[in-house]
Amino acid sequence: MAKRCKPNGDEHLYSQPPVEHRFRKGVSGNPKGRGKGTKNFVTIFMTAMTKSVTITENGTRKKISKLAAAATQLANDAARGDKKSIQLMIALLQAFEPTIEAQRPKEALIYSGVLAEGDRMV
After folding, report:
1. Could you give the CA distance from residue 98 to residue 5 in angstroms, rounded to a whole number?
2. Would 67 disulfide with which of 49, 59, 79, 119, CB 3.0-4.6 Å?
């Protein structure tokens, strides 16, 4: 059981420092904040993933980003039948479905000068 404080406040309770050593109200624990030169995780990750790597595909060497190489490897593993790769691919496709639909070209049909969607590419 915790020690009781005396009315004059000479002693303090367990894990309660004296009042003069406690955090003060309205004062930040990190007054300078994050330095301008430090980068967050997303910036560091995207910098690493956009660096190029040389691959050999069908006997020819070409440079692609690490992100493209990882996506290609994931697609190849899923096509080969790896269950974890298939699950990850399905989850990624569901997450990016609105973006994929927005990038898909619109198809239009021409009937005597009138455009209708869905039948013929123009």
Report:
1. 62
2. 49
Give the Cα separation of 73 and 66 in Å (integer).
10
41-74 confidence digits (pLDDT tens): 999 999 999 999 999 989 999 999 999 999 999 9
Closest by alpha carbon to 117, among 99, 102, 101, 105? 105
CA 86/CA 78 separation, integer angstroms? 5
In a domain, 34, yes or no: no
Q: What does pTM read for this prediction?
A: 0.51
Number of domains in the chain: 1
Q: What are phi and psi of 10, to 5 degrees?
A: -65, -40
Q: Is residue 8 part of a domain?
A: no
Determine the structural domain holding residue 58 and report its residue range: 52-122
Domain assignment of residue 46, yes or no: no
Q: Give one word for 111, left, alpha or beta, with left for phi > 0 and alpha for psi -120 to 50.
A: beta
For the segment 88-119, what is each residue's pLDDT rounded down to a tens digit? 999 999 998 888 777 777 776 556 555 555 55
